[in-house]
Amino acid sequence: MKINQLQTPCYVIDEKKMRENLEILKKVQEDTGCKILLAQKAFSGFALYPMIGKYLAGTTASGLFEARLGYEEMGKENHVFSPAYRTEDIEELDRICDHIIFNSTAQLKKFKEVCTGASLGLRINPECSTQGDHAIYDPCAPGSRLGVTRENFDGECLKWIDGLHFHTLCEQNADDLEKTLQAVEEKFGEFLSEVSWLNMGGGHHITREDYNVKLLEKCIQHMKETYDLDIYLEPGEAVALNAGYLVTEVMDIVENEIRTLILDASAACHMPDVLEMPYRPPLKDSGEAGEKAYTYRLSSCTCLAGDVIGDYSFDREIQIGDKLYFMDMAIYSMVKNNTFNGMPLPDIAVMHEDGECEVIRHFGYEDFKSRLS
Ligand SMILES: *Cc1c(COP(=O)(O)O)cnc(C)c1O
Question: What's the gap in Å between 233 CA and the centre of ligand 1?
Answer without folding.
Answer: 10
